Amino acid sequence: TPVVGVLALQGDVREHLTALTAAGAAARPVRRPEELAEADGLVLPGGESTTMSRLAVLFGMMDPLRERVAAGMPVYGTCAGMILLAGRILDPRAGQETVGGIDMTVRRNAFGRQNESFEAAVDVAGVPGGPVEGVFIRAPWVESVGAGADVLAVYGGHAVAVRQANALATSFHPELTGDHRMHGLFVDMVRAVG
Ligand code: GLN
């Protein structure tokens, strides 16, 4: 059974742990480098990317995260987690750092403010069985991707799911729905690495 961590510094950690467990992983919260070292894959949850980035630096996690992701550990970021995986942020807060891993530029809060959150059916390449229910909460969109990154889903003319090698990112939050197919896709990515 693959051990899949959820970065547990801030954000909707519990929902991801539940979804990963349903998708067949041994799911664990990850706060410290030693816990990261034991994980075969990692989810970066939704929440607030600025806060998560600051806490990752404070807890000594930013460099270990960068090293594991650069070394090919499977990683899946939702919403704020997508922002953390981006090589570039269009409108970063001062000092906002990213882990990187996907050659893409994201725009934070691109779909509007908290009260403009919405749900929409999204077709995701590689996810069989029809569209997934996309929950968008102050969600980023992907402004552009580099040559190494594949766009898996588009909504409203903007890329909202991207994969580059073992790094997967969605603007939306599958962990807030009962549909665990995105987590299933990710757990399969972790299994493939062995
Ligand atoms: N807007 C948030 C950010 O910039 C992301 C929101 C979310 O994760 N639901 O981090």
UniProtKB/TrEMBL annotation:
Similarity field: Belongs to the glutaminase PdxT/SNO family.
Q: What does this protein do?
A: Catalyzes the hydrolysis of glutamine to glutamate and ammonia as part of the biosynthesis of pyridoxal 5'-phosphate. The resulting ammonia molecule is channeled to the active site of PdxS.
Q: Where does L-glutamine bind?
A: 47-49, 108, 137-138
Protein name according to UniProt: Pyridoxal 5'-phosphate synthase subunit PdxT
NCBIfam families annotated for this entry? PLP_synth_Pdx2 (TIGR03800)
List the catalysed reactions.
aldehydo-D-ribose 5-phosphate + D-glyceraldehyde 3-phosphate + L-glutamine = pyridoxal 5'-phosphate + L-glutamate + phosphate + 3 H2O + H(+); L-glutamine + H2O = L-glutamate + NH4(+)
**PANTHER family, alphabetized:** PYRIDOXAL 5'-PHOSPHATE SYNTHASE SUBUNIT SNO, PYRIDOXAL 5'-PHOSPHATE SYNTHASE SUBUNIT SNO1-RELATED
